[in-house]
Amino acid sequence: MEKTQVNIRINELRGIINDANRRYYVDNAPTLTDYEFDVLLKELEALENQYPEFITPDSPTQKVGSDLKHSKASREGREFEQMPHRYPMLSLGNTYDITEVEAFAERAEKGIGNAFTFCCELKFDGTAICLTYRNGKLLRALTRGDGTVGDDVTRNVKHIHNIPQELKNGPWPEEFEIRGEIYMPWEAFDRLNEEREREEEQPFANPRNAASGSLKLIDSKLVANRGLECTLYHVLGENLPFQTHEQALKAAAEWGLPVSDKRMVSSRIEDIEEFIKYWDTERKNLPFATDGIVIKVNELPYQEELGYTAKFPRWAVAYKFKAVQALTKLLSIDYQVGRTGAVTPVANLEPVQLSGTIVKRASLHNADQMQILDIRIGDYVYVEKGGEIIPKITGVELSLRTAEVILPHFPETCPDCGTRLIKDEQEAKSFCPNRDGCPTQIQAKLVHFLSRKAMNIIAGDATVEQLYNRALVWNIADFYELTQEHLMTLEGWKERSAERFLKSIEESKKVPFERVLYALGIRYVGETTAKSVARHFGNIDNISGATKETLLGVDDVGEVIAESIVEYFQDEINKEVINRLKAAGLKFEVEESQKAVSEILKGKIIVISGNFSISRDEMKALIVAHGGKNSGSISGKTFCLLAGDKPGPEKLKKAESLGITVMNEMQFRELIGENDIEDAPTNVQNAEIEPSLF
Fold first, then answer.
1. Which domain holds residue 383?
2. What is the 3-state secondary structure (H, E, C) of 83-119?
3. What are the tens digits of pLDDT across the range 660-670?
4. Do 387 and 363 share a structural domain?
5. What are the phi and psi torsion angles at 307 (to 5°)?
6. Same domain flag for 551 and 498
7. N or C: which end of the chain has fewer CB within 10 A?
8. 292 domain-assigned
9. How far is it, in rounded angstroms, from Cα 179 to Cα 172?
10. What's the pTM value of the predicted model, to 2 decimals?
11. Residues recognised as catalytic
12. Domain of 212: which CATH number?
């Protein structure tokens, strides 16, 4: 695979994964199974490891998923207070292969070198929580957030019946944290979805989403009615009187904290495998969802010794159960048009119980997949929910096939607009090329333009559908010509909602150029590429006049992206839309504060670690302002490790092993000609190292 193709695939994977993360953590409406997500993430990790020059700090491989700024409160302008975690709240590495569990055990044994044990526990499928107790009383409850900062949901957590507000059976540490999972049992989940269906509201896809959504309710009293429960599994604090994880959990249980008794301690890999096999079967009888087993090094000093990667502890791994299957009848197939014009076949099924929910529909992905499955309408098919979320058809039971089955034919024309479909040689999906006339694609462009990472206008799919159906909005420029009178003609709109919407549109005029460029919806141009192109050319006129050759000189732009940008700006309709957006007052030029200060770091990859005289984000911006690139991991192509106070020991170690220069903040500022600080740490090697904690 050529580098250009690699870069395109990396950007494509990042877009898919970031969207999946948003839908999982933010919208509580996942579109990928855990397994599908993990496969894509591992592909991205492999490509970035092979081509480290393409690694960026905002890559999903360099950070944990975030649940911040997504609640109903946020949408109404009232957010939960955000607070920093005392210790970073990382994710767990996971696997579906028992041989990888064995490999994990071997690595731990090699890293420790002494006798030790493992503690195995159920992996609860809920939403992560961190509780702080001070003097035996509940002080604070934070969500995972982005791993560094979380939402303060203390008032809601106090309404979860099995979380004690005051501990018993002391003594206990003066202050400590305990982390766990808030989940919704199957019974409560079914009851909630029945209520939502009666009220004609969209039911939750699974208990995890229901738990996450319930935890962010504005009215904390409503939380008590949702039937949430909590299980805690990890104790943190200073000078804790425990030598093992098991001892800590036993103590927590004695204090009245909800700790699962479904765990096992052993030094034998055979026992771990037996524990996994037992619960893979027995989990079906549990009153709550569990999606795997977590295996941890039991001895706390050895946990500290093994340490952490950027995202995961090296002393723990999660084995995830394989999907549960069900057999049901395929009744019919619908063909749905997506945002990019891709046509996806969706199977309508005879309702069947699967992993605690009733399954009626499942994606067939594309025409090739239908051929591979050799599927017929009327067949009995196997359906599974990898990761217990989105169902998919994995096979056909040919022994039950009858003569009455019907061979489905993938449409040759778009089901929405009738345009003849096309299929690129490099794409598995069929596409509708009528981008400016297909109703589904038009509405999808409008939704993308309004989205949080684009123009951040307060509106969703339903609003777009209303505006489109009333012929008030046909393209993105039409939003800026809407009036209150227009909006008040729409069903369900009140004066206040119209005012909020128009205010949001007005506020969008302040959105920086790089996001406006992303909002245009140019094919293959994601957030990162839009930022690179915007800062390289400075304004929209320079981009619109750029040739393929000049575009290829931009970081993150390859052949396909360059061709797509050129094609976009050659389209007369697009030119007209941009002119109207200019007239509306949108920003189509990079502001002075975003422009490059110098090119002294041009082409240089810099990894940062530790604390500086300014925030880490500001330091990263400073690197970019002088032409450099940020990266989250060290490789042979790294120019230097910029180390502040308390840098990560692993990064220091790797830099040393690869012969990479380690630079302190004072040295870095001298390099870029901004040596105007007084208190930056100068002795990196002697700086105190603070270990990351799970």
1. 325-400
2. EECCCCCCCCCEECCHHHHHHHHHHHHHHHCCCCCEE
3. 999 999 999 98
4. yes
5. 75, -150
6. yes
7. N
8. yes
9. 16
10. 0.48
11. 123
12. 3.30.470.30
